[in-house]
Design brief:
Blueprint (H helix, E strand, L loop, with lengths): L3 H11 L12 E2 L2 H11 L4 H4 L1 H5 L10 H7 L19 E12 L8 E14 L2 E12 L7 E10 L1
Antiparallel strand pairs: 1-3, 2-5, 3-4, 4-5
């Protein structure tokens, strides 16, 4: 590794392994957001987009798509849900994929969610730093999280 910025980032990130981040702000999942996601992904299943029918369904009301929860979990406002400090010299971060995604509790429309991250590993790969970050999406006033997944991110310097 001959990039001083990357070497400094590696040292900084290694100190954060295993430490939970500050949670993001609570973020309300609205029917409009669920409908917009349904339009974008072509997933118009009634448990998401038909509130009247969903009242009689298995969840007692409409729920967010699991993929919506997964898609926004790293972008929720406030806090530092992804658990990463400011990194000098970083040009961009690339979503490299996901490990072990589990949707354990449906997110009801109207519920508020937030994300907490915990850095699991960081190593050099292909001239970049690859980070594995365990992300947990919590639902306000719920005992069980909505989703737990490991994001894989590559940082370019």
């Amino acid at each position: 590794m001959s990039n001083p910025a990357m070497e400094q980032a590696l040292a900084t990130l290694n100190e954060r392994i295993g430490k939970a981040s500050e949670p993001t702000d609570w973020f309300e999942i609205t029917q409009d957001r669920v409908n917009g996601f349904a339009d974008a992904t072509l997933d118009q299943q009634w448990i998401h987009v038909d509130p009247e029918r969903a009242k009689t369904g298995p969840f007692g009301g409409p729920i967010a798509h699991g993929q919506l929860t997964l898609s926004i979990m790293t972008f929720l406002p406030g806090g530092s849900g992804v658990g990463l400090p400011e990194i000098d010299g970083m040009k961009l971060g690339i979503n490299y994929g996901w490990n072990r995604v589990r949707f354990m509790n449906p997110v009801q429309v109207g519920a508020k969610i937030r994300t907490v991250g915990k850095l699991k590993s960081v190593e050099e790969r292909g001239g970049m730093l690859e980070l594995v970050n365990e992300m947990t999406v919590e639902i306000e006033n719920a005992d069980k999280p909505a989703c737990v997944a490991e994001s894989v991110l590559r940082l370019v310097f």
